[in-house]
Amino acid sequence: MAAIAHHSPLSHAAYHDLLRSLRDEAIGDLRGTPTRVSRNGRAYWYDSFRVGSEVRKRYIGEDSPELAARMAQAQDARAPAEERRKERARLVRLLRAEGFLGLDPTTGSLMAALAGAGVFRLGGTVVGTHAFRLYEGELNLRLGFDQTAQTDDLDIASFERLSLALEDVAAPPVQQVLADFDFAPAPSLQPGKAWRWRQTAGHALVEFLTPAFGEEGLRDLPALGVQAQALRHLNYLIADPIPAAIPYRSGVLVQVPRPERFAIHKLIVAARRRDEDRLKSEKDRQQAAFLIAALAQDRPEDLAEAFEDARARGPRWRARIEDSLSRMPDSAALLAGL
After folding, report:
1. In this protein, which residues make up the domain named Nucleotidyltransferase-like (predicted)?
2. Residue 245: in which H helix or E strand, if any?
3. Which residues are within 8 A (CB) of 293 and not within 5 positions of it... i.e. 6 or more apart?
């Protein structure tokens, strides 16, 4: 495998400044009082505010020491909103000048609209090639065109149970956001339900996914107001996602799977594809190989933990991983050496 290229330390620092600013902005935009709520052994933070005689709650995130610390600082004196936006736009320009990948205006606007509606705040996680592209900033990797050829597909995954527990919904509704961008629901085997949305003028496709705990099929995601296709192995991929910044306009805050889980999951997905999906299987293996090589250098402990976690989940998981690695001797050697 060719040597892995990296962006400059300046651009890596700029990316994390952008990400930090977007996360602070998300926490600081409170209408009321931060409130901690416990459900089923887990704790969540909400922005509680009054509208007339009614108290409403807007979901912020799952409780963690980092989130609690951010909210403790949320009311501190800060620069005016327009000044903060201009600073983020400056960071985005710096990143683009340094060679960071961008998004076309249509996809960038769609991502920004989905973020504004609360899709990622409410548990939505970008998966697929769009997630792979966003590891450029997280891991400070310079990606080549052959690795990141723009895909028209946008895949968003979320946990059904989390969506049920949040008691908050996207606003405006996700279906309205998609309709504003000329997406229409694609027919499914279940009348009146759709998990895929196709752009009426063009080839863009948005798909909603959720982990299958049992049979695969369609599930409701109440927080997002859409149906999702339940898939096995997806619970491994989207557990404990991380925030990511899209360098578009003044930045868009989303979340993506942890890169080590993405890499191992790609090994499983490549082995599950049917014969007619050979090109997709090869792309899966290429993305997995690239991330395994990068993580073996930069985050070997994280990669080893993700690898062992997947292998410990049963013989079918191990068989699919080994099937892909049998075609990837370099990656197999790196994983064996962790």
Report:
1. 107-310
2. strand 242-246
3. 1, 4, 330, 331, 334
Residue that has been written with the tokens 């895909």 in this structure: 151
Q: What is the pLDDT along the chain (338 residues), one digit of tens a residue?
A: 557 899 999 999 999 999 999 998 887 666 667 788 888 888 888 887 765 567 777 788 888 888 877 777 665 545 577 888 999 999 999 999 999 988 888 888 899 999 989 999 999 999 999 999 999 999 999 987 666 655 668 999 999 888 888 878 898 899 999 999 999 998 877 777 889 999 988 778 999 999 998 888 899 999 999 999 999 999 999 999 999 999 999 999 999 999 999 999 999 999 988 666 888 899 999 999 999 999 999 999 999 999 999 999 999 999 999 999 999 999 999 999 99
Task: Tell me the domain boundaries of the chain.
Answer: 104-257, 258-338
> What does the alpha-carbon distance between residue 24 and residue 322 come to, in Å, rounded to a whole number?
42
Q: Quick check: bond before 172 cis, omega within 30? A: yes
